[in-house]
Every structure is written in structure tokens, then in C-alpha cells.
Amino acid sequence: MTPEQRRESAPAPDVLVVGAGPVGLVVACELVQQGIPVRLVDASVTSPEHSRAAIVWPRILEQLRRIGAAAPLIDAGHQVDGVSFYSEGGRLGSVSMNHLPGTPYRFALTIPQNVTESVLEKRLLELGGSIERGVTLERLTQGPQRTRVSLRTAEGAVEEAEYGWVVGADGAHSTVRKQLGIAFEGEAPDLTFAIADAPVDGGLSHRMLHYLYSARGAFGLAPLDGVNFRLAVSVPHQEEGAPAPSRELFQERLEQVAPGAGTIGALHWSTTFRLRCRTAATFRQGCCFLAGDAAHIMSPAGGQGMNTGLVDAVSLGWRLAGVIRGRLADSVLDEYAAERRAAAHRITRTTGLQTRWGLVSGRARTAARDGIARIADTTGLLQRVAAPVMSQLDIGYAPPQDRWSAVKGAATRLAGISGVRPGTRLPVFVAEPGDADRRTGRPPIAGDRLSVLLWPGVHRGPGWAERTAAARAAIPAGTPVVDLAEVVSPDLERSFPRDPAAAVVRPDGHLAAFVPLTRPWEIAPALRHAGLLPTADVATADVATADVVTVPVSPREVTA
User: What pTM does this model have?
Assistant: First the structure.
């Protein structure tokens, strides 16, 4: 079915997504690829020419492959190997992405946010979605079951409409959040940053991100290609209407923190923005949700802001699609709010620490910081701690306290052996069975529903056929099952227990539960407590399977 045919045959959208930045685009792609019509509106008449965010980390590339966007983003961006830290011109240490375990994306991707938006918009159009630009949300009123909104078009016409679900992806000044009356909490740091894109002629590697620290400030440089860098430096707060930062300002600040580091060429563009870290009091209110900057804003240190929002979008997208299609219980949407708010708090604390770390002043404190960093680099501690944090591969979700006690007990016992607990990311990805991922030891999971992975144990003993038959008989119809007996992967052996087990895995690749295969009757309850509705296979029987897109992974994408 072509996108045009799909739009003509689709029912009227019952989901309104406000904001067509990267976060809103990913939410829309997640829903549209599962056959759910979405209305995506944005107040801007055109997409932005420039933007602040410029880095996409490995975990986010893993998640964006769900909608088929990872490969085109890689094609449009610039791969970097890691991050280097300097103080007063001397090297403190570095963090490499090249040796990350369990992921095909052993690099960070630098790509301007406006290019990211172009790639995602193209993917949305390919899937059959669209964007309505110049449409502004003016009022939002929640009812018991539906939300009423007032929308103003670019021509000034006002439309009253009702939707079952509303997603606010409309940025730090979110109208959705304000209309819902959700508090936006937080305080320090209150900083202003000047940013620009420009060529830099000097000895700085175009394969690394650079953080240059000095008693006179800090300077960040991210290579966008073989010539140009994204520049970022803290500056005094600016008055309204102040001129854009000049090349001379950036050059002067670079010389202050790292004399001789390079010569900055003519700026392609520049701007300033004032940062106040904030997190919404809740990410869900009834049938309305917040994601991205509408839900949290954080320090630009480490380039985590947009990345955190993109994971919000994926996490909300598969859940909302599952609830609308009758596969998942509404409780999974509460889990979105709890999980992603906790993750945003954690990342905000980390980026805030990195900001303060870079702005340390005073001879004694600077010497202490530099000494700690050099020791951590020499011992390998910096790599072991910082690489998973920066890449977001370490993000996990603690299971809710009201999980089924028997499943939780079994998971705890097995996790004690394997070192993995429910909520942990597993080295599995959305893919078609039999594709390149299976050959590389990264088994495929379904992108639109819970999957069950059957693990034979480390020793792969006899009787496996009988055990899998018993397990399959206990698994509800329509649940994808992946037999791992033919997959040889050190990553999986580190993630799974020694003994045979069934792993209930979410569409985002996070573990929901481990169940010992000696008790296959516990698999179905584990699926239900992960959100699967008992009648899911019946409730979704009338949904056209042709509209459910499971994204295949090409060998190029796996080995990129």
C-alpha cells in the first residue's frame, strides 16, 4: 500500500501530536508504522534552519532502527570515536565508543538537529504520515475520556476538535504542559551558552568530541564533518535583542582555555540560549503525555537532551500503539511516565555534574579535578564508568513494586546469577528473523509487541526440544518466540542466567521478566504483568497486519 493510499483509507486520527521536532516526529513514526493514524501539528510554518542539538548516541541509534531511521541518519551524519577531555591545554583522558559491547553502533553520530528532523520527516512521509505546519494549539481541556482542543491555522481559522490521546512534544515552553497545569520544577544551573557552527583550522581531531577546561572557562567542540565543528561556550547572560555572538568572541574564548588549539573561520551561524534545568512534575495526565523538552530540559554537557527526548518518543510510541490496538494494558502508559521521569532526573543530575566539573575554579579544586580525571583515565575507570553513561547503554528501569510476586522472586534469583535484573537493556534489536542480526549474535525481537526469548543455558544440555515445546504451549497465541539455541553470543551469555530460561522482552529491548523453563506455566502470567492483555490476540484480529511494519536490519546498518 502506498502512503497516498494509506492516507485515503485510514480512519480519522484519534491521536494528536503537538510539535514536529525530532521527538514529535519519532512518536508519529512509531504510531503510523503500526497503522495508527496520527495528526502531527507544529506552530512553525517552516522547519528550523539551525538548531542546538548535534549528537546522537549509540543507544538512541538502536532505538531509531525501530522506525528505519538509523541507517539514513548515519548516512547524513559524521561518525566520531569518542570524547577527549583537556585542562589548561593538557590532556586529562578520553572515553571511547569503539569498544562498547553488545551494540552495532560503536560510535557517536554528530548531525545538526535540523538535518535529523529532515531525515525523520522523510521517514514519516514514507510511512504514510504528514505534518501540518502553521497550526498552533491555543486551548486544551481534558474530559473523562477525551481531550478537547482549539487549534489556530496559519490563515487564522480556529478549529475545535476532540482526541482520545494528546502528546505534547512542543518544547521547553510547551503549551500542552501549561494548559494541563503541570509544574515544571528545577533550579540550578542557570547558565547562558553561545553556540555556532564554523570551520576550525588546527590540530583538533575530527574523530573526537573535545571538552577544553580552564580556570577561565570551558569550551566544547563537536566535529560535524572533516572541516566544521559545533562550538559551545558559556557566556554572561545576554540582554534581550543582543547581537549574535561573533567569530572574535569564540576565538578569544578558545585562546583563553587552550592557546594554539586552532583558528576559527567564518561562522555559518551563531546564537545564545539561557539554560534552566527543569523536569515536569509528571509526564502523564489522563490521556495526555509530555515528551522531550516539554517534559525535561537539561545541561547541554554531554549532548544528552535531544537523545533523552528521542528515547521518550520511542518508549511512549510502542506503549500507546499497543494500548490503542488492544494488545497492552493501560498500566504500561503509567510505566512510561514513571520510567522516563526517573531516567530524565538521572541524566539531568549527570549532565549537571559534568557542567560543574567543567566550570571548577580555584587552583586547589582544579588540581584535584585534574588529578582524579588522570588517575581514572590511567586505570580505565573513566572508560568503564563514562562510556555506558554517555552512550545511554546503561539506562535501565526498575520494575514496579506491584509486579507479580512469584515472577519477581524468580527474576531476582536468576538475576543474582546472571547479573541482569528486569528493566535491563538486552543486546537484542528489532529485526526480521533470519537477517544479519542473527548471524552476528543479536537476535531479533518484535517491534510492536512483547517477545519471548527461549534461552538454553550456558551448557546447552539435552532435552531442549521438549523444554521449548512445553514453553511454546504455555505462551499466548500471537506472541513472537525466538529460540536462542542456535545463537552463539558472548553478549547474551553475559546477559542471561546459566540455566535455561524464558525472557519476556519489551519492544524497546528491555527485559520485563525471566522465568525458569522448569516452570513454563509462569510465562503467561509474566507476559500479563508486563502489560499483555489476556484477550490481545482476539482484540487485534481485525487490525490489518500489512500496516504493521517490522523494520529489517541491513548488513550495512549492523556493521556501520
Answer: 0.88
